[in-house]
Amino acid sequence: MIKINDLNFSYKRNKLVTNNVNLNIQKGYIHGLLGKNGTGKTTLLKLIAGLLFPDSGKIEVMGFNPQKRQVGFLSNVFFLPEEFDVYKMSIEDYVKTHAPFYPNFSMDDFDDFLNEFEIYNKKEKLTSLSFGTRKKVIIAFGLATHSKLMILDEPTNGLDIPSKSQFRKIILKAMNEETSIIISTHQVRDLHNLIDSIIILDEGNILLNASNQEITSKLYFGVATEENAQSDILYSEESISGNVFVKENKENLESNIDIELLFNSVFQNKERIKNLFSNSNR
Predict the structure, then answer these.
(1) Which of 2, 66, 154, 260 has the smallest number of Cβ neighbours within 10 A?
(2) What whole-number distance in Å separates Cα of residue 203 and Cα of residue 101?
(3) Confidence band, pLDDT 50/70/90 cuts, at residue 216
């Protein structure tokens, strides 16, 4: 789906944002893009979407060069930025204006997604809606385009707790084997039980790019009261259930990913994690 080789990009007068990034992103997965604020997540997404152009290196998305902005590329990519402006038009007029650019757009699915978000009046002006409700409309539209690549930058910002649950539900509804969804967020709890793959970015470098299955095959997430918690611990912290930890999974034990623990363990053991997952970023 996406192949990135030796990618470099910098804004004028600023430090390098992406530094020789190499990354493969497969179709059929929901990818979580994680990183601290200011580490280049949004920049990387804009480069993939063809909204920014690399200084050097190569990006290939579905066989297209995003920089060329070809119709076959644009009609199969939907990008939701964290912040966006809306014109003084109704929801139905927004759809009439934008849907023709997406040949796979489904009005039935759009209506279904709006209903999931409890939005029932398509004659309402977008400018009269709260920011969170506007975002739900745009998310519903984006998923209804059935684009092969959907890029969502901080999609749960502005959503209340029930809406976040609805968001996870409709994302799973829209997903299929030919689709790739990239969700960038710093609210890792919002991705719980949703993503299939995790990418962690740090200062323009990829620290981790692995599927959930690969992560749990190489790392074990547990509680320190367990007998097997005595060695190879990468990270631990106190919790209500006890001293939770991440360790190398040398015993091939089964566990469930804790995204926050994974994130913290990666940043405390950058080189060790990169070596452990050395084949994941290629």
Answers:
(1) 260
(2) 35
(3) very high
For residue 115, the one-letter residue type is N
- Segment 251-263 shows an average pLDDT of 92
Instruction: Give one DSSP letter per residue of the chain, joined into a string.
Output: -EEEEEEEEE-TTS-EEEEEEEEEE-TT-EEEEE--TTSSHHHHHHHHHTSS--SEEEEEETTB-GGG--HHHHTTEEEE-SS----S-BHHHHHHHHGGG-TT--HHHHHHHHHHTT---TTSBGGGS-HHHHHHHHHHHHHHTT-SEEEEESTTTT--HHHHHHHHHHHHHH--TT-EEEEE-S-GGGGTTT-SEEEEEETTEEEEEEEHHHHHHHEEEEETTSTT-SS-EEEEEEETTEEEEEEE-TT-------HHHHHHHHHHSHHHHHHHTTTTT-
Express each pLDDT in 9-33 by its tens digit.
888 766 556 678 889 999 999 999 9
Give the CATH architecture of domain 2-203: 3-Layer(aba) Sandwich (3.40)
Positions of CATH 3.40.50.300 in the chain: 2-203
Q: What backbone torsions phi and psi does residue 3 show, to the nearest 5 degrees?
A: -125, 125
254 conformational bin, left if phi > 0, alpha if psi -120 to 50, beta if neither: beta
Structure tokens at 250: 């040398």
Exposed, middle or buried, 100 (CB in 10 Å: 0-12/13-18/19+)?
exposed
